[in-house]
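User: I'll paste a sequence; please echo it back and then give the predicted structure.

Assistant: Echoing your sequence first, then the prediction.
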Amino acid sequence: MIKQIIQKSLKDFFTPAILSISFLPFIITFAVILILYLILGDSVSAYFQSGVSFVDAKEYPKLAYILSFSFFKWLFIIFFYIFGAILVIIMSVVIATIVVGFFTPKIIKIIHQKYYNHLKLPNEENSIISTILSYTKILFIFLILLIISLPFMFVPIINVFALALPFYYLFHNFLVLDVGLNISDKKEFQSIIKNHKFQLRSTTLSLYLLSLIPFVGIVFQVLFVIVLTHFFFLKRAT
């Protein structure tokens, strides 16, 4: 089923109607990332080039001694930039997920008219307060997970997973909530995510891992929405 959804979603993505929508979220996300880079990038580079000590020699004498050697200093810088690059990729995915949320109703309308016009879209509209509370809850849990993962940020290899897991939680819940509540009423939405929890999580995890490839998470964010749109409509139809 998932294979068929992917194939159908790819065909939908490369249609003029969808491509015209996907262009704007890509530009907005890319612009936000570029602005953040221009603001923070020079400051970080200047810090390392200035030769400033990374640690307080009085408080951490052994660590300061180790970092006094050029080899370890450059190893630290390389590690920092690799970790920074991963962080930028993940942040770009989150930003793109939030940006594309504004275009989700339009995308769903196109897919609905093309394939699922025999299914009625929910008549009830989610109140702004209810929507804000739902997203606030997700953000709150995300921050807790991020705080819990902080001690592992300084352990090589493990830190990549420690950073990725909280952001996957954010990616999964934002995407599912944004798409699901535009296709199903609250009762049906809860039923779908409960009865198809494993399949839904495996789908969003695959999309999340795919999005970690540089630029894929920005360029194909609309495709991810299309995949989840087909998923929810098909689950409604069964």
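The mean pLDDT is 81. DSSP finds eleven helices and no strands in the chain.
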